[in-house]
User: What shape does this take?
Amino acid sequence: MSNLELPVLEAEAVPCCAPLSSAELSVGDSVTMAAMFKALGDPVRLRLFSKVASAEGGEACVCDIQDVGVSQPTVSHHLKKLREAGLLTSERRGTWVYYRVAPSVVAGMAALLDLDR
Assistant: This one.
């Protein structure tokens, strides 16, 4: 297996919502953000998200992050929940799936909670 260097996509962070201190959340924004925070509210999902976010090159193969103390099917379930919440993107390469933090998600969540804006 050769090491293939993948291009890093430069995506500008675009928050989904205005900071909480600037205006009330719309119904749609509150549903979107609640799903993201709910997905991260599980310790296994938070660890998986952290492993992907801190992975070298900004992506992680499921084969490298599945050591979180649960079975492989449970890891797949949690990764699916993170994808459905919009927190991760995935790409199948051969038999493995590689995960990345979705563009602008972390910046958007941080901006929402920024009370100094």
Notes: Residues 17 and 26 are 9 Å apart (CA to CA). Residues 1-15 have pLDDT under 50 and may be disordered.
